[in-house]
């Protein structure tokens, strides 16, 4: 991959002046702020101006404990103290009203719920976390709800689907900064940009002998709901936040989807990639025997190597299940920045969290670590363009309610049964009804 270089610190400093205008007081008051009378001499005016210029800016000494992955703190050619320290130092310089001393610690997004909840009072003031950990963090009293101008800023700079990834029981609890979800990779020598807009068109195309048109992880419970959501199905309320509202995938739309998936699994131009078959699609791409595959950014390097100049990506396609037309919708997750509610300097911590999640800091993470930004403005990259389109047009936020625990194993079993031919057109309704009944049995947080 080839990325454009940017002056990262300059970008971060530039944004802080506007993005965080509502965080803290920046006005420095002096005894000489009143205008001089009309009869004042030039010397008096000059003295007043000098006094104003020399008036010190009142600063507040602040210590913030910041936890982030080790990779964010490793020295690089550009950032000798690591990119996290560089971004935090830039934030400090942009805020003369605060004199911030940082204490850094290592904590990956994947283990935040474990490390932070061990001792909330002793944990970091600002930390990174994976959004599916939000219910546990909230219920442990380990993360602060955003409000006021900071919340307005976060909402103004993120899509609704990304805001939903950090929303729990009506409150917004973090600043999303990276995307975690899936989209479509395809071979541009086999499909055009117009053809990949419609899954049924893709499946109908003749790509030649021994070529599979589409590979999908139908037996993976993170992927299969995309079809049910696509025709208007809902899980735990319209936005997935109310566990008391059952999943409705077992209605007539859901039955149409089930019959569609039965036909999909039986289609000779389709192949499933089971959980234990990781790499199957990449091998087919390498052999020139696959048209499209649905996965995330983690497979980019291998697929781009396999396809070379034919490497292409797109948002999810439309499809028609019986009388219902829809567009596949993947679960959109995020990595986010949270603030400890026990923080002594809450205003500074929240302002830092908003800053570290802004578009320019996202670009730094992308350039240094390849972390997928939510805002790819100014970055010319086919995968990032596809991700942005997916987030905005063909995704839903993964439900964060505890009842979601009833989904994963049941959905995997249902997908496997479809692939194995155990679910057919004759028993589809009964199998679907039983499947969703098990889902709606719910579960508890783990």
Automatic annotation (TrEMBL):
GO BP, one annotated term: maltodextrin transmembrane transport
UniProt keyword annotations, A-Z: Signal, Transport
GO cellular component terms, semicolon-separated: ATP-binding cassette (ABC) transporter complex, substrate-binding subunit-containing
Biased segments, Low complexity type: 34-49
Stretch forming the signal peptide: 1-21
UniProt-annotated stretches for the region Disordered: 28-57
Superkingdom field: Bacteria
GO molecular function per UniProt: maltose binding
Similarity remark: Belongs to the bacterial solute-binding protein 1 family.
Protein name: Extracellular solute-binding protein
